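Weekly structure sync - notes
Attendees: PM, LS, DV (DV joined late)
Agenda: review two folding runs queued last week.

Item 1: First target. Sequence and structure tokens pasted below for the record.
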Amino acid sequence: MLELIDSLRYKVKQVRLLKERRRERIDSQADRIIDGYLTRKGRFGSRRPPVKSDLIDIDAVTEPKIAQTKFASFEKFSEIQLKEVEASNELCRKEGNSKIKVHKVENIDNGNGFNVAGKILPKYTFQLGNTENPQFRILVLAGTHGGESRLARAVLEGIIQLAHPGEERYKLLKKGTILFDPVVDPGGFNNQTRGAVTREGMGVNAPLLGEGWAQPGLPNPWGLGDRNSAQGRNSLEAQDVLTRSNQAHYRKILGGKATWVYDVHETCEFTHWPDLAFTYGGILLMAHLYVSDTRLASLNQLEPGLGWWRKLKSFINDHNPLEGPIYREQLLWHDPRLQKIIRIRNRIRELGQRTMEERFDRAFLFLPQVERDIRIDESIYIGGMMFRIPQILLGPDVLGFEGLTSESFQQDLVVRAKQTLAALEAQLKVIGLSYNGERDVEND
């Protein structure tokens, strides 16, 4: 009997060893594929070192800082936020740090805080920059999904970094204002849960994936203890007080409008399928841009003007799960707003961070029962058209603002946080400072 047990243990050990070796091979292959394209001028150019950011030092995010937040309650994280912001503001006179304004979000139903785990707790947002006559107004959100709370720590790091002295930071903050909400949903943050919604925007006890969009009775691994389902509904009647209070607060602070919204998300730690896409994929950018009915009609009327060979290729693409209608993508690619997003994607790569490289992007397409959006370029999609159909609206859309959702497909928490800060820095550069790309990279 003991010999049999020893034999089984040996076999298990051998299987684990083989799996680990396979993992190492896949990891090495992914590094060669993705990292080889990060900072090159082109696919066949020589490798370039990452650019050092003059706005946010992404390497300032460390594992201890992430661990500090990983199991923190919302109440504890609020204390961390206020303490770090207060320390930064104390340096304002000594070192010339930019002043961080602290705003309390008002509960529009009763004026007090919000119910989090049986306690009425205050909720805060933080603002940097020119509030008198801003040329741009940027809103940065994190924690829309309660189970994605680690990126709240990354956004807080971004706030503190931007408050440091620096010529480019002063230039950015002189031009416009940035409002940060690191925890959109305090209840979800506290419970480490996220909800799910049907195509009609109704809350359900089922995940969006798994043999259908919403199967009643199918266990929901995220739970429904947060406000995610309410955040995703498109009517005021269906939204809860937290969502309505958040929106009223954003509009009040930003003067009723925003130039840009950055809504940051992350893959859940327990998600391993498809393994390659979720483990190595990097940042995927989802554009939330309003396209008029006339514009949509013109996009769809391009087909009659195509040559027979282009029609054939378009027909093949329409029936190929890896491709989409090429004529729409080509026209959308030249949209000025999407050109900005392409520059944001390129800046993320300049900073040495991964974006969703093509073959891993394609692996993501095989998730069951998920309609794909229109792909504009590698790692860039436009999501407005898909979400018009199910009437589920994400952060930028539900606020009536245009912007970008980024999804970090990485299992390593620190890498995920660095990718998020790189995406934040890139958007502040392009939207706030009209950044077009590194001169030496372009002219080399």
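Item 2: Second target, run right after the first with the same settings.
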Amino acid sequence: MGTYIRVRVDKSSYYLMDENSKDGIHQFNGIGDHLGIIAPIGDGPEKLRKLDDFFINADGSTKILSGIGDQATIYKISPLREIDQVFQINYLASSFTTNPSGEYLLYGSYNLPFTKFRLAKTDPKGNIISSFLENTYTNNLLPMTERNFFQNQNNLYVIESFQPYVYQFQNDSLESVAQLDFGRYSIPAYFWQEDIMDSFGKMSESGFANLHGVFEDETLRLLSVHFQKPEGIFKEVVIIEKSTGKTVKLSSNLTDDMLYHYPIGVEDGELLFLTYRSVILDGLPKSDLDKIQMEIPQQEFDYPVIIKAKIRFNE
């Protein structure tokens, strides 16, 4: 697997999708044993032509989003790997989620004329019943293939590329609950006025920031911010103690500090990070490494590892 991996978790398994290859969803049990590939990509029976996003249902089945041309299709895959089409919609979505009532939220990004609204809500059969975030961007923009939906406890948060807002979706309404100040790395006004090939190049020369993830449990909230700078790719992870408002910030870069570069969740007051065996060997103190060395044996290739960490807030 590469370095950009989308992770979902349920009570018994971890589900990983390599965001570059998108060759399928790799399922692992709680101790890291590989249980197989859900929705492998390819030709033939029990395979899909394309994979964009996935959602794990409480009954162990999987929902898959596959966008081709100007349409998106939702599939349901049973625990026995049987594939059924749920619906097809004339809305080019790049990510999605669902709620207990069977309705869907689809995110379509800035791709006119395919998406007049960046966010759409459908009924269980794929009929659009609500639309949000009107798309006024008229220049050409490559499709974003990011994760936009973050279900945390009873809260569903929505984020999107090039925007500093954290939205909460609740009771068929979308409300901005936070706005981040990226300072000199904020998206410049000219980005929305010029062709992407010109504006993105200029913006990359000066650097820009993107909100990458929102995770929380009953006690902690984590915000992950991605910085694209001329000197490299950096990340700031902001952890907030919800009861006191105390904050800790972790900074890292993709070149030589990847131990806490990829947060994937918050669980029971602990932070979950995706990293690699080689990074752990280089980054952890020997006293910590001795405790887990047997759990990460050497193999033919380097491999991803999920670690949990506790955070200490200063008084």
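Discussion on item 2: Residues 62 and 276 are 26 Å apart (CA to CA).
Action: LS to circulate a short write-up before next sync.
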